[in-house]
Amino acid sequence: MQIRDLAGVIAVAEHGGVTDAAAALGITQPTMSRSLGRVETELGVRLFERVPSGVVLNPDGELALAAARELVERYERLRADLAERLDPDSGVVRLAFLDSMATSLVPRLLRDFHQAAPRARIELRQEPGHEIVRDLGSGAAELAVTSLRPAGAFGWIGLQEERLVLVVAPSHRLAGRRRVSLVDLAGEDLVTTPVGFGYRRLVDSLFGAAGVVPQVAFESADLATIEGLVAAGLGVALLPETLAGVSGTAGITLAARGARRSIGLTWRTDVALAPAAARFCAFVERWAADGGS
């Protein structure tokens, strides 16, 4: 039994006869009869009873007709959805991005892409880096704006470099300094992201290179929240320079090699991107080459 057989059941019910149903579907009467026979054989019941004017549904047929309409409608909707998804102009782009990019890079990028492809739909997933890698692996996201290119078969388009600074409350003892080393932070309460986050690995690697064991006081998945906690006097933090001062904090240059993070667009190269995602990827490459405009 196939979808077109179920469509035949609907046609026979609507036209009240095999001959008229066959004509409506553009097939021969014997073909229509065989199609109806396949459905009844597979379901193990008769669906129609003969009457002088043609055929009518019996109670089993009424149940089958309702299911057939639902299945055919769902199948047609699936075909339409797939056709739309495979259209580079109106398809769906499944994009994941870092929480810290929610108010800066990503809105600008999406605004410019929308101007170039107004019919394309974007499904957004805002999440930390380790969840982004998971979703790229499972296919829940096709593209991601993240820091650090994932290991393995992943493409990468660099979008921006962020300098990391020490962020302190205005009353902190280091607030007046123009430059500090990580050694100066020994014994300080640190506010940072939880263990397992890509950003936490970056922060830990910087402290490790300086031979300092950070004293973590608070953890938050959101970098903007971390800046707010620092402003409240709950510790110090290493954050992208763009976040310094948002809540009245002070940003101080770090005398540490590698105190930067790279932000880029990444995607799996071992599977083909859907046309809309491929179009987005090509757009981002041009966008980045033009300086993000």
Automatic annotation (TrEMBL):
Give this protein's Gene Ontology molecular function annotations.
DNA binding; DNA-binding transcription factor activity
The answer to whether the entry has keyword Amino-acid biosynthesis is no
Q: Name one GO cellular component term.
A: protein-DNA complex
**Is Secreted found in the keyword set?**
no
One Pfam family, short name please? HTH_1
- Keyword annotations from UniProtKB, A to Z: DNA-binding, Transcription, Transcription regulation
The segment(s) forming the HTH lysR-type domain are 1-58
Q: Report the sequence similarity comment from the record.
A: Belongs to the LysR transcriptional regulatory family.
Q: What is this protein called?
A: DNA-binding transcriptional LysR family regulator
